[in-house]
Amino acid sequence: MRIGMDKGVCGAALSRNQTLVVPDVHAFPGHIACDAASRAEVAVPLRLKGRAVGVLDIDSPLRNRFDEDDRLLLEAAVRLLETRCDWGRCGYDLYVQLKDNNA
């Protein structure tokens, strides 16, 4: 799903380039309800050369579901994914732009 920069939790995590842990999505301004049962959310930016290019988004039907341990685990998983992703095959024109700009 594509969500605009700074739209909802995912867009905010993407535009800020930082993980967001939201204990109650209904209290988050501009929350986008992709799942009506969602009550809590954590969004971790996926980075290419330090620039956020996507977001791993996890929802829960329970408020206050995610804590610091969850954040650290999900960030570690995303960092591992970033090192294993074959960016050249992902279809990101951004890969070529960043590769050329940072060569």
Structural summary, described in words:
This protein has about 100 residues and is α+β, with helices and mostly antiparallel strands. β2 and β3 (about 50-60) form a beta hairpin. The protein has a single domain (about 10-100), classed as 2-Layer Sandwich (Beta-Lactamase). It is globular. Strands 1-2-3 form a three-stranded antiparallel sheet, with helices on both faces. It contains three helices and three strands; from the N terminus they run αβββαα. The protein has helices at about 10-15, 70-85, 95-100, and strands at about 20, 40-50, 50-60.
Describe the secondary structure blueprint for this structure.
Layout: H1 8-16, E1 20-22, E2 40-48, E3 51-60, H2 68-84, H3 93-101
Antiparallel strand pairs: 1-2, 2-3
Q: Tell me, what's the shape?
A: globular
Strand order of the largest sheet: 1-2-3
Number of helices: 3
CATH topology: Beta-Lactamase
Q: Tell me the β content.
A: 15-25%
Return the string of H and E elements: HEEEHH
Descriptors:
single chain; 3 strands; 3 helices
Provide a compact summary of the structure:
By secondary structure, the protein is an alpha+beta fold. It has helices spanning 8-16, 68-84, 93-101, and strands spanning 20-22, 40-48, 51-60. The relative contact order is 0.16.
